Structure to design on (218 residues):
């Protein structure tokens, strides 16, 4: 069972139940046309984010790492009337592509992309946010965890992408800064009594990786 099967199954699931629409496919096409890297979440993962945010009734969502706005569209669509998504993006070019795609999806009034380094922008925000999706530089994950915790309330949910990385996460001698950042986050979560966490290994069209999800305890 390898990549070819995982991709074919993602295609099958997308057609049956995930059903990304033209605005979502269009945002990937716009990202590709602008030369952005093809590292957005898969449709099935985006839909999972959408369902998690809806299930917990999120009204304020914070994303770190916008890229071309693909996950932002899934997340913003989870919001009830009056809800808001803020997404932080370091690259002005990525932010521009994302804003255009969000506008084409009819979400310009709902979703705001702020340009800058996540760590610089976080202190300018006021909480609480109900739902967080963290998907920017992995080295920054431990700092993003602290910053997001400060903007949370009991019951807030955080999801971190890329937390398994082809299984590299269990290599305690790795020099890869992305993997080291993810491993440090696991240590920090383990040492933080205010949160309850799990991590789910995933396969699909993007390979083998994982989502780490936590809830801030009441
Ligand atoms: N969430 C997106 C994919 C994000 S890819 C999706 O699934 O559609 C990671 C993004 O994080 C890239 O656009 C990159 O420019 C951005 N990024 C990298 N370092 C960052 C930083 N320090 N602060 C904010 N964004 C950063
Ligand atoms: C890659 C994948 C991601 O989901 C991400 O956020 C950054 C990089 C990658 O496959 O390189
Ligand atoms: Mg990612």
């Amino acid at each position: 069972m390898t990549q070819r099967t995982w991709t074919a199954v993602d295609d099958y699931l997308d057609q049956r139940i995930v059903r990304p629409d033209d605005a979502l496919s269009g945002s990937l096409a716009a990202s590709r046309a602008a030369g952005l890297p093809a590292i957005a979440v898969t449709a099935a993962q985006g839909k999972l984010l959408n369902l998690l945010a809806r299930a917990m009734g999120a009204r304020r969502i914070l994303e770190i790492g916008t890229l071309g706005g693909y996950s932002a569209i899934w997340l913003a669509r989870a919001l009830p009337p009056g809800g808001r998504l803020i997404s932080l993006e370091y690259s002005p070019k990525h932010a521009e592509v994302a804003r255009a795609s969000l506008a084409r999806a009819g979400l310009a009034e709902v979703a705001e992309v702020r340009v800058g380094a996540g760590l610089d922008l976080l202190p300018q925000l006021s909480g609480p946010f109900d739902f967080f999706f963290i998907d920017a530089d992995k080295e920054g994950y431990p700092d993003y965890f602290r910053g997001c915790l400060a903007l949370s309330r009991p019951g807030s949910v955080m999801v971190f992408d890329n937390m398994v990385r082809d299984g590299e996460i269990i290599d305690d001698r790795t020099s890869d800064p992305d993997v080291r950042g993810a491993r440090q986050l696991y240590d920090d979560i383990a040492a933080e009594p205010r949160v309850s966490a799990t991590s789910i290994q995933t396969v699909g069209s993007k390979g083998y990786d994982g989502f780490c999800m936590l809830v801030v305890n009441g």
About this structure: The CA atoms of residues 13 and 44 lie 8 Å apart. Strands lie at 60-64, 84-89, 111-115, 131-134, 157-160, 195-204, 207-216. The chain has a mean pLDDT of 98.
